[in-house]
Amino acid sequence: MKRIMPRARGTAYPIKRRYAHIHVSLWDGEQEVAAPETTVETK
């Protein structure tokens, strides 16, 4: 993601963008094993 900011006399500088709030999820292709559900009974 390169962005250019035009400057005086025909020069240009890159816009430095901070990459915030990026979440990367990696998946190996195997199916996830669900944890057994436990029920809690209240009286």
Instruction: State the helix count.
Output: 0
- Quantity of strands, as a count: 2
Question: What is the helix/strand order?
Answer: EE
Output the strand order for the largest sheet.
1-2
Q: Identify low-pLDDT runs.
A: none
Q: What structural category arises from helix and sheet content?
A: mainly beta
Average pLDDT metric: 78
Instruction: State the shape.
Output: elongated
Our Rg estimate from Cα atoms comes to 25 Å
Alpha carbon gap, first and last residue:
58 Å
Specify the biggest β-sheet. 2 strands, antiparallel
User: Helix share of residues?
Assistant: under 10%
Hey, roughly how much beta strand do the residues contain? Answer: 5-15%
Features:
elongated, mainly beta, 43 residues, two-stranded antiparallel sheet
What would your notes on this structure say?
By secondary structure, the chain is mainly beta. Helix content is 0%, strand content 14%. The protein has a two-stranded antiparallel ribbon. The chain is elongated and about 75 Å long.
Short description:
It is built from no helices and 2 strands. With 43 residues, the chain is an all-beta fold.
List the helices and strands and how they pair.
Blueprint: E1 4-6, E2 12-14
Antiparallel strand pairs: 1-2
